[in-house]
Design a protein that fits this description.
Dna Ligase, domain 1; alpha+beta; Arc Repressor Mutant, subunit A; two-stranded antiparallel sheet; single chain
């Protein structure tokens, strides 16, 4: 059984992308984390192991991963992009106080896509859904 990492490496090889140590580290980090890190968070997590790696290197590699379909870029109102390597159908719950993002599964809203197509004539390519609220940590902090 191949791991998600091995599948990702194979996908990159098929598109002609060479696997550098930095690219390997960024991809491993994204696949191993349950968080939805920003570029700065990825940089901080890897700077001890790769002190010469720049933020620009991370941006450039994320662009490669986006083009290969290995990650999604999540943009929200705070202006900071976050990156998600979980490519299965899922949705996000976002804390309006601390910005934490948790994944949750729900049956794909394919009927919403069909309705959008029927009412607008658009050829729907994808959708995303977020729900907003206050995470349990922030709720607990508010009580104390």
């Amino acid at each position: 059984m191949t791991t998600r990492f091995e599948q990702a490496i194979e996908k990159l090889k098929k598109t002609g992308v060479r696997m550098t140590p930095q690219r390997h580290a960024i991809l491993s980090y994204l696949l191993d984390t349950k968080k939805h890190p920003s570029v700065d968070e990825i940089y901080r997590a890897l700077e001890g192991k790769f002190p010469s790696m720049s933020v620009a290197t991370i941006y450039n590699n994320l662009k490669v991963f986006l083009e290969a379909g290995l990650v999604r870029e999540l943009t929200y109102g705070d202006g900071a992009s976050r990156f998600d390597a979980e490519m299965s159908d899922h949705y996000h719950a976002i804390c309006t106080q601390c910005g934490k993002i948790d994944d949750f599964e729900y049956p794909p809203l394919l009927d919403a896509e069909q309705c959008a197509h029927d009412k607008t004539g658009f050829e729907i390519q994808y959708h995303r859904m977020e729900v907003y609220g206050i995470c349990s940590h922030c709720q607990e902090a508010a009580v104390h």
